[in-house]
Specification:
Serine Threonine Protein Phosphatase 5, Tetratricopeptide repeat; 3 domains; 25 strands; about 25% strand; 22 helices; five-stranded antiparallel beta sheet; disordered N terminus; about 675 residues; five-stranded mixed beta sheet; Immunoglobulin-like
């Protein structure tokens, strides 16, 4: 009955997996207007570059939504005040500044500055004078967060007394440009200034400098600071904007769900590589969120974070993938204690030798926000060679002697607490942690570590330590007081030297701040089994398998399975290898017990078991297993193609035709299946 039911299901269901896409071509008018008119003065260069690469309208609409979200000053409210104010400014300038100009108001100089800076605090007008052009002096105050002076002026004048008002530059125009009948030398700015002061003292006051109190114009020369001011005003809209979200939108728009794609949030991250005594290298990672969105129900606060990691080797081949679900539940007191602190998600995983790109995606299912980490790492091929791992800079060292469980950023018996942005107060200690491997007896005796600090490129301090002073080799930790490190940017460089010759080095940057206290992150992590646990043998074996190193993978996967033959993931991984090497009878003996005892067998268990039965010629049993997969997990063309092949081999051509036809409806781009269907139709 199971076979008949699944066939009827196939006949009755109609599945469509197509998605309408707009054709690539010229930018549609509404998007061109948005880019070249509505946001032309506030869009950043990276944002503009990303938008130009989008090919379908859906992605453009989503990008525009993300564009405004990343400017919303109160993201928790329905209204986006920034967007509302921006379109109010556009309406204002189009109504008032386009009247005397042969162009819309947003394209005029006054319109541009108004859209960027908003309403001036004061406007002084000089109109109807015969000896000066119609002019306006705008005064702004309170724009320091944009990198602008506490107070400054902008001057506009109507050259020729008709048309639009042009932005005045003390350097490029000079005081004489404000007077229609001035006869003197244009290069003699002081004489022009004196003449203008006799006619209109208020206008003369801003003709050499736009910045009150600027002494640059006291000698009769236009202020270069004013020219720089105008440039800063033009750049002001993107000064406080982190454009990284635009790049993340481009990278992840086809990976994350639509509701996430516009909600990228910034994070700090850290990745380092360390080797355990077993010889296995582990990648340690941290993703640090500045904020955490939660939902509230009856005084309880919760959220669910989904973490997905991908490791790619040469030619973008996927070597490993992992995922983790993190459920956070807090009461009101707990929420208060962590709401002002960053959240650091930390983990670790083993990795075989090679060069890799690591990508970790973290999604908040409550707020539909996402962030990511990307990093390239190298795992040495010879674990016994002379090598130095990358530096980890922390603010606290925790001793946990006798601890057998693995923990992220634990070196030997010491765990490093750190903040991914590497910011310290001068009352902190700086912890420097790393590993040295492959040292010969001579290098242990004669080797030295030189710790050199640099400030603004200049050497600030240096300290030398003998290698034989460190009792915990290969793990090395060194502590430095930062009491004498004034707030600034620093670099630390650690060099390994033997007999005066540097063999290798590594460096990292850190910052000291004026703040007396820093809100350190609260940490979410899990301790992992000891390094001898077969789970790591299984992970290494799976990575070797995906790398195409089948012989090495077999040894690891068999070792893991025979240590824990009742653990389904180990059985699946080994069976997948046997399927590739054609050892189908072994699959039946390994997976058979799981197939009988699992109430709802996993898709991988059913699919691999069905393929094994099919290769062994047990076609009825294969169809039964494949149909169980259909019942539990729905239709896909992989299952349908295998079911169709089984029917065909059993001589049931009509059943095979029905199944393969449905497969083509799901995925029309299958030349061989289409050829099979056409051949069966010709025989009818």
């Amino acid at each position: 009955m199971r076979k008949i039911g699944s066939i009827l299901l196939i006949l009755l269901l109609s599945v469509s997996y197509s998605e309408a896409k707009s054709e690539k071509g010229d930018l549609p008018e509404r998007f061109r207007k948005w880019l070249e008119e509505e946001v032309v003065y506030i869009i950043g260069p990276r944002e503009k570059e990303v938008f130009s690469k989008l090919e379908i309208d859906r992605d453009r609409d989503l990008f525009i939504e993300a564009f405004w979200k990343h400017r919303d000053p109160t993201p928790g409210t329905p209204e986006n005040e920034f967007k509302t104010e921006h379109y109010r400014r556009i309406a204002h300038v189009n109504h008032f500044f386009g009247r005397t100009a042969p162009k819309p108001g947003w394209r005029t100089d006054r319109g541009r500055m108004y859209i960027i800076l908003g309403e001036p605090k004061d406007i002084q007008r000089f109109e109807g004078r015969s000896q000066v052009y119609n002019s306006e002096v705008w005064f702004y105050q309170g724009k320091s967060e944009l990198g602008l002076p506490p107070g400054f002026h902008l001057v506009f004048f109507q050259e020729g007394r008709v048309g639009e008002y042009r932005l005045y530059s003390p350097v490029q125009d000079g005081p004489h440009a404000l007077m229609p009948s001035y006869i003197g030398d244009p290069a003699d700015h002081y004489s022009a200034y004196e003449r203008l002061r006799e006619i209109e003292p208020g206008l003369a006051m801003v003709s050499l400098s736009l910045i009150p109190g600027d002494e640059a114009g006291v000698f009769g020369r236009p202020s270069l600071s004013s020219e720089l001011l105008i440039q800063k005003v033009e750049m002001a809209p993107t000064r406080l904007l982190e454009e990284r979200y635009a790049q993340k939108f481009l990278e992840y728009k086809d990976i994350v769900e639509v509701e996430y794609s516009t909600n990228y949030i910034d994070s700090n991250s850290l990745i380092t590589v360390a080797k355990e005594p077993t010889g296995i290298y582990f990648v340690h990672y941290s993703i640090e969120l500045d904020r955490l969105s939660v939902s509230e129900y009856q005084g309880k606060y919760s959220t669910t974070l989904k973490l997905n990691g991908t490791v790619k080797g040469e030619e973008e081949k996927i070597i490993d993938q992992f995922e983790n679900t993190i459920s956070l539940n807090l009461d009101q007191d707990q929420l208060k204690s962590v709401s002002y602190r960053p959240l650091s998600i930390r983990g670790m995983f083993p990795l075989i030798p090679g060069r890799y790109s690591i990508s970790i995606l973290l999604k908040n299912e409550v707020s539909k926000e996402f962030t990511s980490l990307e990093k390239n790492v190298i795992i040495p091929a010879d674990s016994n060679s002379l090598q130095m791992t990358s530096l980890t800079l922390g603010y606290k060292l925790i001793n946990i002697p006798g601890e057998k469980w693995l923990k992220p950023f634990k070196f030997g018996s010491q765990q490093v607490n750190f903040q991914s942005n590497r910011v310290f107060t001068i009352s902190d200690s700086l912890i420097v942690a790393f590993q040295l491997h492959g040292l010969s007896p001579s290098q242990k005796k004669n080797g030295e570590l030189i710790f050199t600090f640099f400030n603004e490129g200049e050497e600030y301090r240096s300290l030398t330590r003998k290698i034989d002073q460190y009792q915990g080799l290969p793990n090395i930790t060194e502590t430095f007081s930062l009491a004498d490190f004034r707030p600034a940017h620093y670099q630390i460089r650690v060099s390994f030297v033997v007999d005066g010759h540097e063999l290798f080095s590594d460096s990292d940057n850190f910052y000291t701040t004026h703040s007396e206290v820093i809100d350190r992150p609260w940490i979410h992590t899990k301790q992992l089994p000891p390094p001898q646990d077969p789970v790591y043998t299984y992970q290494i074996g799976s990575q070797l398998f995906h790398s195409g190193r089948i012989r090495e993978a077999r040894l690891r996967l068999e070792e893991a399975f025979y240590k824990r033959s009742d653990f389904l993931p180990f059985a699946i991984a080994l069976s997948r290898l046997y399927l590739r090497s054609g050892e189908y009878s072994k699959i039946e003996s390994i997976l058979g017990p799981f197939l009988g005892r699992e109430e709802r067998p996993t898709y991988d268990l059913l699919f691999i078991m069905g393929q094994a039965y099919q290769k062994l010629g047990k076609l009825d049993r294969a169809i039964d297993v494949f149909n169980r997969a259909v019942d539990s997990y729905g239709l896909n063309f992989y299952l349908l193609n295998n079911i169709g092949e089984c029917y065909f081999q059993l001589g049931k051509s009509q059943e095979a035709l029905v199944v393969w036809t449905k497969s083509l409806e799901i995925n029309p781009n299958q030349p061989q299946v289409k050829k099979n269907v056409d051949a069966l139709k010709e025989k009818k």
